[in-house]
Amino acid sequence: MRLLLDSHVLIWLMEDDARLTAEMRAVITDATEVFASTASLWELAIKVSLGKLHLDLERLAGLLDAAGICELAITRQHAMAVARLPQLHRDPFDRMLVAQAISEPMRLLTADPQLQAYSELVVVL
Q1: What is the CATH number of domain 2-124?
Q2: pTM value > 0.90
């Protein structure tokens, strides 16, 4: 199974946060490939620059590399897929993640229950 991790799941994984259950850690560990989207890294960088999030982005990037989590770049196909999504959620970063999950295809792990309405590929923690 191929997985795409939402921004907060990335943070929880890297910080060993208790909100990421042992069951969900096992799903991530057992996946054939695990990805972090450029959209998530961009979203985190914006929040850090605005002072809304305190996170060492360089450390996060190093931890992602060490964990074997691949970066999923945003492509033209992904951008066009966003336009085809119904307006169920307003966050542009989340909409991009859903579009990427559908386009690739891969499962999107998230804690946002609103995203589940888009596709059976969205797995809510």
Answers
A1: 3.40.50.1010
A2: yes
